[in-house]
């Protein structure tokens, strides 16, 4: 069947049948749409949206009161978990707030308000604090479970846009996230209100983070798979080469022995040590090239005469990123790892750091 539409009419043709003209109803005739959208119109709309939402967030700061402090105190005193819940768009915001809390030192998880009435309420215990989000404060799914949550002994923090709502009145602490208007021109789609609720959740998470003294290393422990985790949790001892993989020759070794060790171990250098295992120097590919430019018999030349004495070193317990900085600052590609007595315990080069994804 072929259909062609023009100004609210359609023509249909079936095989073997005469053309039939039929009228169709169009809720919005295509002829009423502009052929080309003005370039300025979307930008005006976007700026208006951002300005409304920015004003909504700025207004939150002026309305912060003892309820916010009370919410922080309740969560800090919590011996269980923080359970965050909501419906619809507020549910999506609640899920993000739970994730932010969990990654900044406050154990938290999301429970869908509707699912809670069908068994998930069992996730909530008397040691928990529940954060309930509802712009109207009258979400039926939330109000259905709040009495049960409180009966168990859990404390309730409400984030709403209506301080006189049922949810706000039932809460042990209420955070006012109300907005003057939605960015949606129809005043229907949650826009400024969800942005305000999200910002209030972030403010709560950061206040808790600071109250707990939560630092960068704590953050890294909950983000081991990310770049920050690798940078803050990877130590030199985790990536350095040791044992048979460590290129090493004694101070009395001749240059051919050092060259052979460099070739076998593939690090572009070899450590040179004293009899007691203390680092005497390092001999690198660069040192070899400079040596070969000289009129010297390399077959009988002691490596100690052409090595770099007192090379840069690092300790195994230091962070791998410290090794990166030291190597970059000194413009070197390898570094020896020593203990407190300057005895050689390992070595690493830039390739090792690349493999560990520290760089």
Description of the molecule:
The chain is an alpha/beta fold. The chain folds into two domains: 45-214, Rossmann fold (3-Layer(aba) Sandwich), CATH 3.40.50.10490; 236-355, CBS-domain. The protein contains 14 helices and 15 strands. Helix 13 links the parallel strand 13 (313-315) and strand 14 (334-338). Helix 1 (40-63) packs across helix 7, helix 2 crosses helix 7 and helix 3 (88-103) runs parallel beside helix 7. The longest helix has 24 residues, at 40-63. It is elongated and about 90 Å long.
Topology:
Layout: E1 2-6, E2 9-13, E3 20-23, H1 40-63, H2 66-76, E4 82-86, H3 88-103, E5 108-110, H4 113-116, E6 129-134, H5 140-152, E7 155-160, H6 166-170, E8 173-176, H7 192-212, H8 216-221, H9 227-233, H10 236-239, E9 248-250, H11 255-265, E10 269-273, E11 279-284, H12 285-292, E12 308-309, E13 313-315, H13 320-330, E14 334-338, E15 344-349, H14 350-355
Parallel strand pairs: 4-5, 4-6, 6-7, 7-8, 9-10, 13-14
Antiparallel strand pairs: 1-2, 2-3, 10-11, 11-12, 14-15
Keywords:
four-stranded mixed beta sheet; disordered N terminus; five-stranded parallel beta sheet; Rossmann fold; 359 residues; CBS-domain; 14 helices; 2 domains; alpha/beta
